[in-house]
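Dear Dr. H.,

I hope your travels went smoothly. While you were away I took the liberty of generating a structure for the chain from your last submission, since the lab meeting agenda had it listed for discussion. I wanted you to have the full record in hand beforehand rather than looking at slides cold. The sequence, exactly as received, is reproduced here:
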Amino acid sequence: MSSKRIAVAGLGAIGQTLVRKLARGLPGLVLSGIATRDQAKARAWLDREGICCPLIRLDDLPDHADLAVECAPAAILDRICVPMLNAGKQVMVLSASALLPRPDLVDLARAKGGQIIVPTGALIGLDAVCAAAEGTISKVEMVTRKPPAGLAGAPYLVANGVCLDGLNAALRVFRGSARDAAAAFPANVNVVAALSLAGIGPDRTTIEIWADPAAMRNCHQITVESDSASFTMSIENVPSENPRTGRITALSVIAALRKLTAPLRVGT
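The corresponding predicted structure, in token form, is as follows:
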């Protein structure tokens, strides 16, 4: 069986973790290219890590990869997805918030025989939500608590003049639908976007976002009520070098990639 070629778009904290793992070897997968804005910086990092991998342009992803992993700013999601999907290939998308206003990308995947994969990321229990969605779900609610640094600079906070500097008590900064949260906090709540896609959609999934100076981790609690089960799930994620992102996010991508070629696949 030939190896599946994996390209990584973006070389931040998640991209670097993924590149290291692929370079060391995952069964049936090969690191085939890296697309990043600052190629000189990327080359210097690769040299320090002792990793040999071509640096490529986003437009050239389909020539180098069977699957591209998006680890980049949400603003360039289109430049990653469109070439790959037009070629009938796969894209693993971490910026799930950016998918909500882009149903045309799903339509493109359907028309061209491509596929968009959203990994579990920093959440827990998406298998259970997907299963419940095969029946009838009546409610999906999420409460997210993050250290203030993990929310700093979010468009919603800037637009509403909310300053988190010197915060000495937990402050609820948002309550609303997953769709509105994705627009208000595009770099902070990919988790609720993924949850909404797994369950009852972005307009019926609700979220509260809290800035909590006592929180040392990114904490998410999910409550689901359906005709097959009612369940509550919670997870506390250790932040990565980027305080907006948990360390487990990169590991979730690695686990999802491993499943692509594994002889035993566990989970939905």
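Two observations you may find useful: The longest helix spans residues 247-261. The chain has two domains: 4-121+248-261, 126-245.

With kind regards,
E. W.
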